[in-house]
Design a protein that fits this description.
CATH class: Alpha Beta
Order of helices and strands: EEEHEEHEHHHEHEHEE
Pfam family, one: ABC_tran
Number of helices: 7
Shape: globular
Radius of gyration: 17 Å
CATH architecture: 3-Layer(aba) Sandwich
Structural class: alpha/beta
Helix content: 25-40%
Strand content: 25-35%
Bound molecules: adenosine-5'-diphosphate, magnesium ion
CATH superfamily: P-loop containing nucleotide triphosphate hydrolases
GO molecular function: ATP binding; ATP hydrolysis activity; transmembrane transporter activity
Distance between the termini: 49 Å
Keywords: ATP-binding, Nucleotide-binding, Transport
Strand order of the largest sheet: 6-7-8-3-9-10
Oligomer: single chain
GO cellular component, one term: plasma membrane
InterPro entries: AAA+_ATPase, ABC_transporter-like_ATP-bd, ABC_transporter-like_CS, ABC_transpr_LolD-like, MacB-like_ATP-bd, P-loop_NTPase
CATH topology: Rossmann fold
Number of strands: 10
Length: about 230
Amino acid sequence: MSASLETTRGATIRVADLVKRFRSGDETIVGVDRVTLDVPAGATVAVTGPSGSGKSTLLHLIGAIERADAGRIEVDEVAVTGLSGRRLADYRRGTGFVFQRFHLLPALSALDNVLAPLLPFRPRPDDVDRARTLLSEVGLAGRERAMPGQLSGGQQQRVAIARALVGRPRLLLADEPTGNLDSATGAGIIDLLWRLRDEHGMTLLMATHEASLADRCDRTVEIHDGRIV
Ligand SMILES: Nc1ncnc2c1ncn2[C@@H]1O[C@H](COP(=O)(O)OP(=O)(O)O)[C@@H](O)[C@H]1O
Ligand SMILES: [Mg+2]
């Protein structure tokens, strides 16, 4: 029997007065400008807005891929903005992130890409079973040994989704997950994300340009120039 994928409850997100600035030469660009946002456990929220409005930056901050300059992020009981070291690594492992450009490691097989987030941690005997089960859940049973270059864009995004789930996240962050795919393939990826969200009991926060996608979410948050409008 395959490893069981136990259901968890989605995470609650609380963002308050969040600021992120970027320095570019002697210019300062404000990527996220005093954003305040509450997402209840299990909700699916779309983040929309034009290119350059701060969608990716907001998701990177919540996923602790980038560090905020000011403000506060809490995900469940964790004060994300204050994390460092081991606790930061634990938080990142437990937060799924799906990128527009998949970001698979080209020299690793599909199975090893799914396992990659666990590499800094002591391996558990059932990790490989879990990774195989996840690949099967995303429709890639039998492709464990395939290299990213041998997979279509849609298949690569499926591997990336399995990778995002390997740390048993209660929060899944998806940054324009269909932005690099044709519409039919993208629709399949969205159906998959919705199914996995329900099966795994996750909160889903997704940046998207597509109105039809935002319509399927419980709520839409629109940002312009880093600010919620
Ligand atoms: N690493 C970076 N260095 C400098 N500027 C950045 C960086 N990341 C994002 N920005 C700037 O921050 C703003 C928001 O970018 P981003 O969050 O990528 O927007 P979106 O995802 O909505 O297209 C843009 O003006 C962008 O140029
Ligand atoms: Mg972006």
